[in-house]
Structure formats: structure tokens, C-alpha cells
TrEMBL record:
<dbReference type="InterPro" id="IPR016130">
    <property type="entry name" value="Tyr_Pase_AS"/>
</dbReference>
<keyword id="KW-0378">Hydrolase</keyword>
<protein>
    <recommendedName>
        <fullName>Tyrosine specific protein phosphatases domain-containing protein</fullName>
    </recommendedName>
</protein>
<dbReference type="InterPro" id="IPR020422">
    <property type="entry name" value="TYR_PHOSPHATASE_DUAL_dom"/>
</dbReference>
<feature type="domain" description="Tyrosine specific protein phosphatases">
    <location>
        <begin position="102"/>
        <end position="171"/>
    </location>
</feature>
<dbReference type="InterPro" id="IPR000340">
    <property type="entry name" value="Dual-sp_phosphatase_cat-dom"/>
</dbReference>
<keyword id="KW-0904">Protein phosphatase</keyword>
<dbReference type="InterPro" id="IPR000387">
    <property type="entry name" value="Tyr_Pase_dom"/>
</dbReference>
<dbReference type="InterPro" id="IPR029021">
    <property type="entry name" value="Prot-tyrosine_phosphatase-like"/>
</dbReference>
<feature type="domain" description="Tyrosine-protein phosphatase">
    <location>
        <begin position="28"/>
        <end position="182"/>
    </location>
</feature>
<dbReference type="GO" id="GO:0004439">
    <property type="term" value="F:phosphatidylinositol-4,5-bisphosphate 5-phosphatase activity"/>
</dbReference>
<dbReference type="GO" id="GO:0008962">
    <property type="term" value="F:phosphatidylglycerophosphatase activity"/>
</dbReference>
<dbReference type="GO" id="GO:0004721">
    <property type="term" value="F:phosphoprotein phosphatase activity"/>
</dbReference>
<dbReference type="InterPro" id="IPR042165">
    <property type="entry name" value="PTPMT1"/>
</dbReference>
<dbReference type="Pfam" id="PF00782">
    <property type="entry name" value="DSPc"/>
</dbReference>
Length: 185
């Protein structure tokens, strides 16, 4: 069954991300703009300093619950300890899953509410490439109203070269774009 396979693949996938980081092949996180930092799982041992240096006031986690349970991940308990707001959206890793257009709207609302309070958001999934990358592209589209999905992806890729969006993510972004345009009318 897929949930068991997802849990089985989680640790090797995190090991790959850590290896890429150690080899200098990928940054753990990148600042996208003055309000958003896109990255991989926040690690407890360094997240407090990242939150301070990047003015993080909230964490938006696009992970299944088992991905943020390990003690070395800065999950709900660590965010509470640091006084950070947190929202978790459960989207499966692997298998071509993407947040839906409606979920993207909720994520953008969360980011905007943090920005209105004067803070930045640390947005992540496991590797900060696909699920959270989709949310980051949606945020750029909402922030820059005329930005089409392909342009948002290009702008995002310039800041985070490891971005990996496939057909399901692009389809969700196109639907999000339609919903946002209808909302503005």
C-alpha cells in the first residue's frame, strides 16, 4: 500500500538530500523574496539560528505527519518552543502528488497573514523541491498578479535551482491561476 511505501522511502530520500547538501550540490534553503524562505525539512539542531537570521515568524509544512515526527525535525513542538506560528498541509511525497488549487489558496492566505504581521515564512516539504515548490510558485503568482504559472516557476527556479515541478504540480498551478483570476473579478 502507498502509505507504507512512502514511509519506507522517506529515510533514504532524506539521506539523499543531506548528501547533496554536504557535497554542495543543493542548498538546504533559499530566500525567495523578503517574505518567503523555501527549503528542506527544518533540522532542530540549526533551525533556531535559521529562524533568527531569516526573521522567520511562521513555518508552513507541506508534509505527511510521519515526515515531521522524527526528533531531529523542527516540527510542531519546536515551533511552539520558538514561538512560531505553524500550519501543516498533508500531501503525500512520491507518486506525483500535488497540493490542490484550493489548498494552494489556503497556503497563500497563511503566508499573507504572516507577512501582514511583519514576518517571513519558512516553507518546506522533505527536500524543498516539489510539494513546497508548488506552494512557493502559487505565492509568487498571487503576489505578482500578472505572473503566469510558467513565469512563476522560472522566477522560482532562479532562486532555488533544485526546484522540480512536474505535470501534476503544473496542472494545480494552472487551476490555482484560474481561481485567482476569477476571485479578482
Amino acid at each position: 500500500d502507498w502509505p507504507s511505501i512512502h514511509r519506507l522511502l522517506f529515510y533514504p530520500a532524506v539521506t539523499k538530500s543531506l548528501t547533496w547538501r554536504l557535497l554542495g550540490l543543493s542548498d538546504w534553503y533559499n530566500r525567495i523574496d523578503e517574505h518567503l524562505v523555501l527549503g528542506a525539512l527544518p533540522l532542530v539542531r540549526e533551525f533556531q539560528s535559521v529562524a533568527k537570521s531569516e526573521s522567520i515568524k511562521a513555518v508552513l509544512s507541506i508534509n505527511e505527519p510521519h515526515e515531521v515526527k522524527p526528533a531531529w525535525v523542527a516540527g510542531e513542538k519546536e515551533c511552539r518552543r520558538l514561538g512560531l506560528a505553524r500550519m501543516q498541509l498533508s500531501v503525500p511525497d512520491f507518486g506525483g502528488h500535488s497540493p490542490s488549487a484550493r489548498q494552494l489558496q489556503k497556503c497563500c492566505d497563511f503566508i499573507e497573514s504572516t507577512v501582514a504581521k511583519g514576518g517571513s515564512v519558512y516553507l518546506h516539504c522533505r527536500a524543498g523541491r516539489t510539494r513546497s515548490g508548488t506552494v512557493a510558485a502559487a505565492y509568487l503568482m498571487r503576489r505578482h498578479r500578472s505572473l503566469a504559472p510558467v513565469d512563476a516557476c522560472d522566477r522560482l527556479r532562479a532562486k532555488r535551482p533544485s526546484l522540480l515541478l512536474n505535470r501534476p504540480q503544473l496542472d494545480a498551478l494552472h487551476e490555482f491561476w484560474r481561481l485567482e483570476q476569477a476571485r479578482e473579478r
